[in-house]
Known about the structure:
Strand content: 15-25%
Distance between the termini: 33 Å
Shape: globular
Amino acid sequence: xxxxxxxxxxxxxxxxxxxxxxxxxxxxxxxxxxxxxxxxxxxxxxxxxxxxxxxxxxxxxxxxxxxxxxxxxxxxxxxxxxxxxxxxxxxxxxxxxxxxxxxxxxxxxxxxxxxxxxxxxxxxxxxxxxxxxxxxxxxxxxxxxxxxxxxxxxxxxxxxxxxxxxxxxxxxxxxxxxxxxxxxxxxxxxxxx
Length: 193
C-alpha cells in the first residue's frame, strides 16, 4: 500500500487518547513510507494525523472543498493541497488517490464518508481495504449495530467481514495489507440469503 485515506473528526473529542492515536497513525504511516490522503484541514484529529505524518517526514495530500479553504482551516504545510468544488468531489478524489481507507473517531461527516466508502466496496466499485481504528472502544456500538444488520438479514456476513477492525494501528495496517476483497457481489437472490 502506497497511500491511505484517513477520515476523522475536525475536533479532538473529550479524551486526549484520540489526538494521541491520530498523531501516532500519521507517524506510523510516514515511517512505513505510506502517503497520507486526508481532508486537508489543520483542525482536530484531521490536523493531528497530518502533523504526525509531516513531522515524521511523510508525504501528506489534503483534499479540501474551496468553501472550507475560505474559512481558513486549510493546513498550510502539506506536501500538496487539492481544491475541489463539492464534498462529493472530495470523497471521489480521496478514493482515487488511495489504496485503502482508515476511519478514526469523528462525527456525522466521518460516518458519512466511511459508509460511502464501504458501500462502494460492497457494490464492487473498488476492492480497497476499509479499516476502523477503534480507539478506546469508540466504535463498539456501531460494530454491534452492523452485527444486528447481519442478524436481522439486512447485511450478509461476507459484507460485514469486508470491514477490518482493530484497536491498534500496527494490527490494523497488517490486516489491510493482507486484505482480499470478496468475489461475491451484493446482488443476490432471496434463496442465497
